[in-house]
Amino acid sequence: MLNRKWYSHPVLLTGIAINVFVLLLAVSVKGSGEQLARLLTEDGIVEWMQFLTFAMTAGLLVFAGAERWRRSGIDLATVGMLGLGFVVAAAAMEEISWFQRILNVQSSEFFMQNNRQGETNLHNLAIGSSGSIHKTIMLKMILLVGLTHNVVLPLLARSRPAIRSFVEKFGGYLPPLPVSLLYLVLVALSHVLIEHPRKGELGEMFGAVHYMSTVFAAYFLGFGYNQPAVFQQPVETGLVDKLFSGLMAFLLLTAWLLSAGAGAMMG
């Protein structure tokens, strides 16, 4: 385990800074319905950032799992990492409707009739007269799992280290409690300060960035993680964390550019 304070960790601080920046950006344009809609709309900065961070996190999980397999063979932790990687990859593809809008592919009759947005994805499939899988089921699951993983288990693990060991045995990790609390505060602020039908997209992006940074800190740098990390030498970790912090900032710039391109095509 890497013994280091969270507030001196470049990767964790960069993740927090990105989320704070996007929240401040949303607050700064909330007086303009057009600009706020541009930020939160399909193919806007927030949604592209979700896709990019989910895709990055999926790649990190698969890489960490494959590296553990190479070093130690297959075990429950390896399977857990690889499985999580593929689940997060599917979430990334769902965010952009499996490249449907990018490739300008028409939805099939099934999705036109059963998807709330007429898109080729599963999370917007209709349930009942006004619900969808995302709103009716997934949001409740995300809330329950998110609070358990970010608050309940890290709190319990402080007095019961066996809880952390149990989670890591199945390929999981526990994020640093202060970082998780800051993430949840930002989600709460986004709901209080922003009035828009799609303001929930901000919280989803905050979560995606939060998990990208904490996954890298745990599996690759060993921060708060009792299993062997991908990088174990102090010299390696001291350089890699700064490099990855720069990459995270570049993802935000890329999301901004992609949203501008989508706006130009729609215009």
Helix content: over 70%
Structural class: mainly alpha
Q: How many strand units?
A: 2
Spatial arrangement of strands, main beta sheet: 1-2
> How many DSSP H or I helices?
11
What's the overall geometry? globular
H/E order of the elements? HHHHHHEEHHHHH
Indicate the proportion of strand residues: under 5%
How many whole angstroms does the radius of gyration measure?
19 Å
Largest sheet: 2 strands, antiparallel
Residue runs with pLDDT of under 50 for 5 or more positions: none
What's the domain count? 1
Mean pLDDT: 92
For the record, give the distance between the C-alpha atoms at the N and C termini, rounded to a whole number: 51 Å
Task: Output the keywords.
two-stranded antiparallel sheet, 11 helices, single chain, mainly alpha, 267 residues
Can you describe what's shown?
- The chain is mainly alpha-helical and 267 residues long.
- It has one domain (6-258).
- It contains eleven helices and two strands.
- A two-stranded antiparallel ribbon has the order 1-2.
- Helix 3 (45-72) packs parallel to helix 10.
- It starts with 9 loop residues before the first helix and ends with a helix.
- The mean pLDDT is 92.
